[in-house]
Amino acid sequence: MQNQLALGLFCEILVSQSKTVARLVGTALFFGVGLQFVDAQGGYAGLSPRFLATVVTIGLTVCGLLIFFKKNSVFSVSEDAGTAINTGARFKRLAILVGGLVAHLVAIGLVGFVIASGFLMAVVAYAYGNDRIVRNLLIGIAIALPIWALFTQVLGLNLPIFPLLSALKL
Amino acid sequence: MMDLMSAAISSLAGGFASALTPLNLLWALAGCFIGTAIGVLPGIGPALTVAMLLPLTAKVEPSSALILFAGIYYGAMFGGSTTSILMNTPGESATMVTAMEGNTMAKHGRAGPALATAAIGSFVAGTIATILLSFVAPAAAQAALNFGPAEYFMIMLLAFTTVSSVLGASALRGLCALFLGLGIGLVGIETTSGTTRYTLGIPELYDGFDIVIVAVGLFAVGEALYNVLYLQPAATINKMSQVKMSASDWKRSIPAWLRGSFIGFPFGLIPAGGAEIPTFLSYATEKKLSKHQEEFSSNGGKGAIEGVAGPEAANNAAVTAALAPLLTLGIPVSSTTAILLAAFQNYNLQPGPTLMQTSGPLVWTLIASLYIGNVMLLVLNLPLVGIWVRILRIPTPLLYGGILIFSTLGAYSIRQSWFDLLTLLLIGLLGLGMRRYGFPTAPVIVGMILGPMAEKQLRNALSIAQGDWTVFVTRPICLVILVVILSVLILPKVFSKKAY
Fold this sequence. Notes:
The complex is a heterodimer.
Chain A: H1 2-34, H2 50-69, H3 88-127, H4 133-154, H5 163-169
Helix pairs in contact in A: 1-2, 3-4
Chain B: H1 2-19, H2 22-40, H3 46-52, H4 62-87, H5 96-107, H6 111-143, H7 149-166, H8 171-186, E1 188-189, E2 196-197, H9 211-230, H10 247-269, H11 276-289, H12 306-321, H13 323-329, H14 335-346, H15 355-358, H16 360-381, H17 385-391, H18 396-415, H19 418-436, H20 442-464, H21 471-474, H22 476-499
Helix pairs in contact in B: 1-6, 1-16, 2-4, 2-16, 3-4, 3-9, 3-14, 4-5, 4-6, 4-12, 4-14, 4-16, 5-6, 5-12, 6-10, 6-12, 6-13, 6-16, 7-8, 7-20, 7-22, 8-20, 9-18, 9-19, 10-11, 10-12, 11-12, 11-22, 14-20, 18-19
């Protein structure tokens, strides 16, 4: 049993490590490919806008490779991360939370900050294991309303209360 | 020197006049209150909180907003010790010693004296460090006035080295984060040539990524996403006892506070890893000097009060001193000072040698508010400790719901665009990945802010030197900074070994 757990943890680290190295090198590749679209005129200093982009490309590539080749990897999982490895339920929660944030960014333009915040509170609380949806929605609205009042009335930020309504009036 | 001191005293008097206005006092009180509350809550640090409140910089006066942020920065240190002592959950590595010794005291029914010595020690150290800061900051700014583009570039290189090598588990991870930040900072129109870089033809990206979105995404959204995956079970809370120290407690605490203050301050000034090293050094010193060796938790004792007093003082002194490199050189030495740098940036203020000249009253108001905040925190902390403990009862789901409401508010209020919320989410996912694999997030912010500036200074320096790169070693100040950079890379390792 312990061997299986150790093997599982080892696989997780191995897979994730190579994945993240790939992500780093992939990011470097993005900046590297993009270099050709950046102006290369150096001026007096002999330094073009391409210089820093090149530094970033080389830096990310070298860091990615160093991580990959470093023995006794400094790239172990962070200390408290090991506790929840391979728990599908937790990833489901993450998916709910990310889904909630996506739905929130769509909803905020229609129903405004206050109602969208109530919805966001309900989804976040659900993702964190609290399923009293209506109560949490109301709590979210109760928190968002004074914040909305403070930021719009006192601090002068522009946050429409119900954009859809204003759009319909127009 | 005397001239500089008398100028500092008269400027400080001006700062007090501004900081003591009713409105600024209210901002300071709000900052101290929010700071203590978030310090008490495990997992929510001052960097995250200041990041969430960055949108305030759009409308609030610079002095008021910076007073608020300084109060949060400071208050979090006070609040953090409460959680460490009562729950054994240090919010950051610098309060690990407090958790170790203070929690042992609490388990043996001495939570009250442990909390009292931590709070009074923080007050003593904070006050001593603020006094020292009042004189060190102008002297450093004066010295730095001789800087040209080459020196500024080297200073920024020092900032890059500092944040990437000391803020996190390894220099390699820090460097990865820094390059990522430099890459994010590249996006948008390059100011000198006017050419666009990496905008992918998306109009929203022509102005580059907004610092508020990146800071809130990495610190707040990343934290909320991480905790839904890896949330730790809640720790048990030790019972409170009366917050009173005996005569013996006072006798043992006072020298420890003073020693801790003078150990912590120099470590905050130099970019050598924030408050972690001095707290461990202070603990080692107190353990060596104590006549009550048997009480130390590492010796199986009931917890020694000087083991809480010294490190708490060292922590607070270092945290206060860390404002000096930020204000005078523009170098952030911790995550929170990196976010404070972003706050200055939002006001088009560049912390550095010229800040004292261009915005002297603002800096002195900020320093004066530290004195005031210190007193407020002492008054707020001890009598209200019962209220702070109650904050721990806020259910985690609602806490993170609230954090995300604030985070989305910050991003959406910039220009009411769903694109900003999408960016916030994507950067939050980046923050989750970074947290998951132990990459520090502060270097991203520093790279993003200082990257374009460093590029500009490098270009100016090379234009003046007609493309001659040796300018960075032939100019004496540059050479000194180069030596400092090498020291930053080597010294923390030496001190860490000694401290442990």
